[in-house]
Amino acid sequence: MVSFHWIEKHMSFLSARLGCFKLNAGNSFFFDPTPGFYGFIGQGTTEALNQAIKLLAEHIESKTAPIIEQWKGPKNPLVTEEYDWSSNQEPPGLIRYGGPHHSRIEIAITNKHSPLIMGAILAHELTHHFLALKGISYPDEEENEQLTDLATTYLGLGKLTMNGYYPITWTIERRDRKVTYTYQVGYLSPQDIAAAMYSVCVFRHIPFDSAKSYLSEQALLLFDQACVSGEGYQLKKQLVEQRECPHCGKLVFFGFHQNDDDIYCPECGWEWNTIIKDGRRFWKCPECGLENNRDLIRCVCGYELSR
Q1: What pLDDT was estimated at residue 297?
Q2: Is it the case that residue 302 has pLDDT exceeding 70?
Q3: d(CA 209, CA 177)
Q4: Which has the closest alpha carbon to 119: 182, 5, 41?
């Protein structure tokens, strides 16, 4: 799982490259994947998918949209019960560039009748197309795919990816045993997308209730959890400054660790613990473990917390 600090860093990169993107969009910034939209793409025709991706392109103000290629493989994507899904290494979607403003997308036929996953694939591949138009990419392939996933939320398509990135699981009976398979698309986890959605809401001052509309039940739960974690991160950001380390006594700059959202002393590695309860900042004493208001901890156990 990526950190809020990681999300903000890469959002800053996108902001620097895209400028004031859809500045006046307000509460209509996110595309709303209605049941009607999912029903439309669930038809399983490339004609419907091409119309859908044009609709999404208009929403993110892309001058052009990729072309969805005709399905490859059997017309009926259902397989025999003996099919080993763990051997399926086919990418959910693949984009090919034919020049400026021209790209074509091939979607694995196994996703033909999975509208939530299909919506996420369309959002991801369209974001690839949009970023390519702007000349935005990372040289490392894995990092670039993660940036593209993050950019789906930054461009307003995050509800599609959050709904579609949740794993689906099914069980098949095979003679004397049952085999359970799990299928999931995306380079960031659904928890990561939820955290990115929270960060976009904070960045653009979008009410959380607006971001919650047309989310699946699982996505809605993840978003609520991300909001709680995000509020904790916002409080921790208040600790990012130069101060005396309560552990080693040196005057240092406390900042976030590269791989998580914890605050560390760069000299001794001491972690500054803060606990969020009822919207207030609580502290955990590193000596006795007491959790309470910062001033109360100082009074009860005498441990001096530098501020």
Answers
A1: 42
A2: no
A3: 45
A4: 41
